Amino acid sequence: MIDLKGFEKYLREEELAENTIDVYMRGVRQYSGMYKRITKRNLIDFKKKMIEKYAPQTVNLRITAMLRYCDYKNIHMKIKSVKEPKKTHIENVITVAQYEKLMRNLKAENIRWYYNILLISRTGMRISEALKIRKKDVISGKVKLYTKAHMRTVYFPKSLRDELSEYLENFKDDDLIAVNYYGKPLTKRGYDGRLKYFARKYDIPKEVMHVHGFRHFFAIEFLKRNNNIALLADLLGHNDLKVTQIYLRQSQEQQLNAIDEAVNW
Fold first, then answer.
1. Which of 35, 80, 89, 195 would bridge with 42, disulfide CB 3.0–4.6 Å?
2. What CATH number does domain 4-72 carry, 3.40.50.1110, 3.30.420.10, 3.20.20.80, 1.10.150.130?
3. Least confident of 31-40, 97-106, 181-190, 206-215
4. By the 8 A CB rule, do 216 and 93 touch?
């Protein structure tokens, strides 16, 4: 039998993040619905079934969950992860026209969300980082953020500081910037929910209205004005320059258009 309760207790004692616990529990729970025992044959069969249903990234999360369960039960087990196709382009990024339409409407109708989105679109921050930003950070022009992996500096450009100055007058120095209508701290789910709402309201494709998309938008627009890829890597907090170089590549639609124009013989 698969010990779900014991495994969850083990994960919590390991002080893992709630989201990580949820991912691991989901994978093991899915396995337990198919098999009663942990065997190499069952794990390989489980992996094959996951490949038929999910993308490689999700399959690998399921595999990792089961390997973590094996650690919990002191079961020595190895299983190969699924090789993920190398990503060579960025898709579903909001266009300049769509961004301007969104911000124009928000500035007229919902100034708080205008500034919430301005914060991520002009800094390239991850949403987890944006949720930690306080008034004093913006005023100082930069802030050091620490994660489990590393420490990096986020900069707030003068154009952003100038535009935020009046809005921040009612904030205390230690107040978080990313707040909702009631002044309560926002969450990633809160951001995503509002972006989907704005997509419907302002007739913007929902595919481009996601929090990480504004990080991509920042990177693409930055390179149009400054092609220093090493600097952009630092600004985005990338440890590997190869990760940043994806922003130098065209989208699939752009690639197709380029081919259509070039291949005319």
1. 35
2. 1.10.150.130
3. 181-190
4. yes
Domain boundaries, the chain: 4-72, 96-260
Q: Specify the pLDDT at position 254.
A: 61
Crossing angle of the two packed helices 111-121 and 211-225, in degrees rounded to 10:
60
Distance CA 240, CA 217 (A): 19
- Say how far apart CA 255 and CA 17 lie, in whole Å: 40
Structure-block tokens of residue 119: 């914060």
- Over residues 118-157, the pLDDT tens digits come to 999 999 999 989 999 999 999 999 999 886 557 789 999 9
4-72 against 96-260: fold identical: no
Separation of alpha carbons 33 and 128, rounded Å: 33
Question: Which numeric CATH code is attached to 96-260?
Answer: 1.10.443.10
**CB-CB neighbours of 12 under 10 Å:** 11
The pLDDT tens digits of the residues spanning 56-100 come to 889 999 999 999 999 999 999 999 988 876 655 677 889 999 999
